[in-house]
Amino acid sequence: MNKEKVINLIKELIIELGEDPQREGLLKTPERFTDALSFLTKGYKDNITDVVNEAIFASEVNNMIILRDIEVYSLCEHHLLPFFGKCHIGYIPSKQVIGVSKIARIVEMYARRFQIQERLTSQIAQAIKKCVKAEGVGVVMECRHLCMMMRGVEKQNSLMTTSSVLGSFHNLATREEFLSLIGRQI
Question: Is the dihedral of CA 150, 163, 127, 96 positive or negative?
Fold first, then answer.
């Protein structure tokens, strides 16, 4: 990102919205907003190889492994407003497991891009499956969208739930076990 270019664009936007970028409270806003935007979209600079960083380990475990309540913060690609919530991930390994912190880092990498929740859920599931060659993966994401809460229909208590199941998680018993363990019902 060309930081100076973005700063100037933000100054122009402030003017177009009817404000004075030279007003005391707005003097440093273009720089602060540019830094914030850089942080909120840092997932574009990441790749799965660097994120996982060889934290794949041989294992004979073939039971379901679950990491739940991973905080998610992303920007809706339609309005550039935040959506946020929780992500729950389960997988059944096939001779390999992934370091637990790497699961959260994978979520973070994909969330720190302009997104829609549906695609984000799928990308996480596919990445976990590919990294450990898992027998199956299940991902459930529950998020609140400011584009629905602050504007448009203004529904304050809406919660969007998405899921992605791959491999053995298509089996009803496996899916039910996963949902039960994360405290959800079919």
Answer: positive
| Dihedral over Cα of 19, 24, 30, 36: its sign | negative
Cα separation, 173 vs 179, in Å, equals 10
What is the rounded distance in angstroms from the CA atom of residue 107 to the CA atom of residue 88? 10
Output the pTM of the full model.
0.94
pLDDT in single tens digits along all 186 residues of the chain? 899 999 999 999 999 999 999 999 999 999 999 999 999 999 999 999 999 999 999 999 889 999 999 999 999 999 999 999 999 999 999 999 999 999 999 999 999 999 999 999 999 999 999 999 999 999 999 999 999 999 999 999 999 999 999 999 999 999 999 999 999 765
Quick one: how far is CA 151 from the chain centroid? Answer: 22
